[in-house]
Amino acid sequence: xxxxxMEIFIxxxxxxxxxxxxxxxxxxxxxxxxxxxxxxxxxxxxPRSQYPSHLLQEHDHIEIVQAIGGG
Amino acid sequence: xxxxxxxxxxxxxxxxxxxxTGKYVDxxxxxxxxxxxxxxxxxxxxxxxxxxxxxxxxxxxxVISPDKYTLLPNTAGCYTTEDAVRTCRLARELxxxxxxxxxxxxxxxxxxYPNVTETLRAAEILVKDNFDVxxxxxxxxxxxxxxxxxxxxxxxxxxxxxxxxxxxxxxYNIMMILENATVPILVDAGVGTASDAAIAMELxxxxxxMNTAIAAAKHPRLMATAMKNATLAxxxxxxxxxxxxxxxxxxxxxIEGHFI
Lengths: 71, 260
Fold this sequence. Notes:
- The structure holds two protein chains of two kinds.
- By secondary structure, chain A is mainly β.
- Chain A is about 10% helix and about 40% strand.
- Chain A has one helix and five strands.
- In chain A, strand 3 and strand 4 (about 45) form a beta hairpin.
- The longest helix of chain A has 7 residues, at about 25-30.
- In chain B, about 45% of the residues are buried.
- In chain B, helix 1 runs parallel beside helix 9 (about 220-240), helix 3 crosses helix 4 and helix 4 (about 115-130) packs parallel to helix 5 (about 140-150).
- Helices cover about 35% and strands about 15% of the residues of chain B.
- Chain B is globular, with a radius of gyration of 20 Å.
- Chain B starts with 5 loop residues before the first strand and ends in a 20-residue tail after the last helix.
- Chain B contains nine helices and ten strands.
- The interface between A and B is medium-sized, with 26 and 38 residues.
- Strand 5 (about 60-70) of chain A pairs antiparallel with strand 4 (about 40-50) of chain B.
């Protein structure tokens, strides 16, 4: 059986992922689970506690941010 | 000297120098310069994570640990209230509910001057949303007072444009802001060298925030130490109370007992 995929946007770029991914699964897929991050979907913050349960939807606009040097 | 701590949002700090973490050549230089500056509050920017590019690249928070420093996420690069508020909310999530932020809403890329009307709007929203807001603004005494009345925990007028290194261009405005203030006033942006930091502190500022003056020095680690010393020297001179200025000379050695 071929897994169905859907389009999402991560930090402005289009990605195809399997339908039914949670935020946690997405971060695992992107190999960035060890980093200190914050996630926003369609301009709404997704609290870390909801990563395992929050299901991604087609055409979600996801921002994944971190702290970098700045003044 | 007796205890002379700086209190921001109920927390007490020994250092009156706050520093940014931008523009250093690498993480080692960042860590060393921040360490040498003696700063306890350190600003960071919030930016997109690089997806798929070197997941093992060193993370700033490994070098500037939130356990050691009070992190002050900024809204640099935001030109609207909405963007600044979004950035603060992401920062709070990123830092596990830590609600101290540096609000800056810029108006123009060439001057990086604050957009004051947007800054006022954003400050109101953030204060209502329980953020402790340290706000970057112009050196307008009336706006500084308004930001204080909105509930900002700290008002931070610029000395000169961000990254310009021009020093304190209008000490009289800073003095007016200080005279009216009941929250800490920090000079944020525009200092170029140690004497600029000392001047800000001698005027009576409660602290000073800088980035480029250290990071863009030929030897940032050494400049960080210079800034630490200048900030402390300026503060001590302010507390000591300087002599009054006179047009003509006054001999330092007694006239009495002179034998010539």
